[in-house]
Specification:
Elements (H helix, E strand, L loop, with lengths): L1 H8 L2 E3 L4 H12 L5 H10 L1 E3 L2 H18 L29
Antiparallel strand pairs: 1-2
């Protein structure tokens, strides 16, 4: 499903079948045996432009993603306080040695 969403966010529709399961299994077990040309051909044959009625939805998703990436109030990574102390006193051994 995540691949279909990735394709949709890029304006494409990925209409896969059971062959994709074989490709993924082959990639997981021994990627050296996978014929990249065959995989690319498969992906091209199962990809087409996204239907126009879905474009508005995808644009809405993208705008929400962009909004969520902006930190409120100008907060940035530099504003986070860091300490060298370990939380919960993990930096000191509290175990008694027996």
């Amino acid at each position: 499903m995540s691949v279909r969403i990735f394709y949709a966010l890029n304006g494409l529709e990925f209409d896969y079948d059971r062959t994709i399961k074989e490709i993924l299994k082959e990639l997981a077990t021994d990627e050296a045996t996978v014929e990249s040309d065959a995989v690319l051909t498969y992906l091209q044959n199962h990809t087409e432009p996204l239907a126009p009625e879905y474009v508005a939805t995808i644009n809405l998703w993208l705008s929400r993603i962009e909004e969520s990436e902006q930190l409120p109030g100008g907060l940035g990574l530099g504003s986070v306080e860091t300490t060298d102390d370990e939380p919960n006193d993990y930096d000191e051994s509290t175990r008694s040695e027996e």
